[in-house]
Write a structure and sequence with these properties.
388 residues; 10 helices; Peroxisomal Thiolase, Chain A, domain 1; single chain; 19% strand; alpha+beta
Length: 388
Amino acid sequence: MPASFVYDAVRTPFGRYGKALADVRPDDLAAIVMRATVERTGLDPARIGDVIFGDANQAGEDNRDVARFGALLAGFPTSVPGVTVNRLCGSSVEAVIQASRAVEAGDADIVLAGGVESMSRAPYVVEKSTRSFPAGNQTMWNTSIGWRMVNPRLPKEWTISNGESAEKLAGIHRISREEQDTFAARSHRLAARAWADGVFDREIVQVDGHHLARDESIRDKSTVEVLAGLRPAFAAGGTVTAGNSSPINDGASAVLVAREGALDGEPLARIAGRAAFANDPDVFGVAPVEAANRALARAGRTWADVDLVELNEAFAAQTLACLRLWRDLDPQKVNTYGGAIAMGHPLGASGGRIIGRAAHELARRGSGIAVVAICIGVGQGLAVVLQR
């Protein structure tokens, strides 16, 4: 079986909810990173065997296979197919995993994977009544994030909010408010410095008419002292705040996956292992722990071999809980240029960002092993091992 490689990865800067990218449709965001990928690599888009894009909400302008429409808007030939996948926050990691499987199985030589989310443009929706003219009031749901239209048969403890779950993990793993705020401040500090130093320059494609000098959610003044002044967001007397949680955002990412030799130039990294894992929904944030352990084992590696980790920071409490459980991992190897608490978490696009970041970093270093992992609401985790 052929191996699968990451040849390139790009993303837009991530915009804040309701801010710089709020007037850009999600299918247009997807088209921007798709088009940029083929332009950067000189790839004839007609050679792309499939476009696989992740998208978590799919309730608005992204409702009818945004991968296909993004490819058409990018100017790809109509012969290039496209499929949209949904594993919530892990959707674009799922897209890359499916792309790598297609390449390794020989179903395609080149697959364009990635993801998109416009949380700003996610619509409000109303359930369809079983009666033609309901007399009572109807509930309107915000589809940007969170539980909605929950099946009443599910145990209530499983359907707590992600923020409440983060509070639960903080209690289980004895993670203090100070630890969370310290980690959040680190994320902002490292991300701001990385943008200033040009670390992300190779990974970024701008949205025409919406130029952003950096990810819009980065706050230079997010010190531990400032963060300590914020109120708990999910529980009275709790420790999880808006400041030590990831924000909601808009953006897109793309990862070009191909067999070796299918494209000109040297690939960034090889996809050496991958895994999915699931646990109870009310502790969703630690599912990446076992997913990463399994992905490493499938790659024939251990934590002693790992040079860097990109772990999506849904919450500081969730990230720190994972680090508690990865006892053999040096925390200094994790998110060395900041993470989603600073840069943002546009659900369907976040996985492509962290895979792209790890691949570009391995290329910059010239060699190494990277673990990319992401937690997923309702109790799942995904992980990919990259090697160069």
